[in-house]
Design brief:
The protein has 356 residues and is an alpha/beta fold. It is 53% helix and 16% strand. The structure holds uridine-5'-diphosphate and magnesium ion.
């Protein structure tokens, strides 16, 4: 019995948004895989991200049957990034694995990830070896996006690596200590660093239902990624403004010279146009510079919580909701980033005992 208690706990964090058709297949596939890993205990933290179908009912029923399944019901659809953030806040595990509900992230990879974790990796990230199941359009746009993002940002995103990964508690605590509200998780995962191992997999098609990311949503997601991690687009206006001012200056010189040399029937036209163009360029420089600062201040000052929790469910018991989602949850479970090494040593000892 004591051996069982000493086993490390692995939390699966699963965001669900209108996934009713996929839920049964998800649990019947994932639970046996997790039960087959003798060296760890597990919990499944399900985040219901404001689903409007029967997702919540199905999740609550699953959690009623199995105490290892917990359900966190958000007050509305906050988006996958917020749902993942909620999951990381709620997860209690020594390692946390975000995984999609549609079985596109193969559960068979979890034992491999845990092996690497036992061997000392702090992050085990899953990399898609092929995007065969994606449309041509998605493959091309994804490739282009990684190139643009990595050219503009100092935080480089590893290509074809999604949210499916195992993270040690130290990594999760580091992520939770980041106060920003605009949470582009792929970027944050890359930003925190840590010792990372990549494992490759073939991405399958969705087991049921349809993708929640339309072309338009992906476009906005891409823009959010770039603006979260780069100020180059903002700064570029400064240079655009400079270029226009320079051009206007040259053009002004040309018009003035032409007027002096050859005269101009419309009096005042030359000086008016050159001043207008010159000031227009200067104004763009000003907007670019101010915009850079306003953009930063805007994101920092809103201080809204990333998500709100309506209710938590575990087994048949209803657990009292905390009223302020991330803000409250952060206050209650303040992360302990500095203690990572110490707890890791203890964990490795526990894993060795459990493995015997
Ligand atoms: N998801 C979510 N909130 C959203 C959109 C998606 O929690 O607003 C979840 C969804 O239920 C799934 C995961 O995020 O578990 C990935 O979504 P999807 O499969 O639609 O994305 P794709 O694989 O097409 O990129
Ligand atoms: Mg999917």
């Amino acid at each position: 019995m004591s051996l069982r208690i000493n086993k490390p706990l692995v939390s699966l964090v699963v965001p669900f948004y209108n996934e009713e058709p996929a839920i049964d297949a998800f649990f019947t596939t994932i639970v046996p895989v997790l039960e087959s890993i003798a060296t760890v205990r597990f919990e499944i933290v399900c985040i219901n991200d404001g689903s409007s179908d029967g997702t919540l009912d199905k999740l609550v029923r699953a959690s009623g049957r199995d105490a290892r399944i917990r359900v966190i019901d958000l007050t509305r659809n906050f988006g996958k990034e917020a749902a993942l953030t909620a999951g990381l806040d709620e997860a209690l595990g020594d390692a946390v694995i975000p995984i999609d509900a549609d079985l596109q992230d193969p559960p068979g990879l979890i034992p491999v990830m845990i092996e690497h974790w036992f061997d000392g990796a702090e992050v085990v990230a899953a990399k898609r070896s092929s995007r065969a199941c994606d449309t041509m359009m998605k493959r091309v746009s994804a490739g282009l996006y990684y190139r643009v993002h990595n050219a503009l940002s100092e935080v480089k995103l590893p290509e074809n690596v999604g949210d499916f990964r195992l993270m040690d508690r130290a990594v999760v605590n580091a992520l939770r200590s980041l106060p920003e509200r605009q949470r582009f998780m792929k970027g944050l995962f890359a930003w925190v660093g840590f010792k990372t191992v990549l494992v490759e997999y073939e991405r399958e098609a969705r087991c049921a239902g349809h993708s929640k990311f339309s072309g338009w949503r992906l476009w906005n997601f891409a823009l959010e990624g770039i603006t979260s991690f780069s100020t180059v687009p903002l700064r570029s206006w400064t240079y655009i403004g400079l270029a226009i001012a320079l051009l206007a200056f040259c053009y002004g010189g040309f018009i003035i010279s032409r007027t002096v040399l050859f005269g101009n029937p419309v009096s005042g036209y030359a000086s008016l146009l050159s001043v207008m163009l010159f000031l227009g360029g200067i104004e763009l420089i000003g907007v670019g510079v101010v915009g850079e600062y306003v953009g930063r201040i805007y994101h920092e000052t809103k201080e809204r919580p990333v998500y709100l929790v309506r209710r938590r469910y575990q087994a048949r018991k209803k657990v009292t909701a905390l009223p302020l989602g991330r803000a409250t949850s952060r206050a209650l479970h303040a992360p302990h980033v500095g203690r990572a090494d110490h707890s890791r040593r203890q964990l490795v000892q526990r894993m060795r005992v459990a493995a015997r």
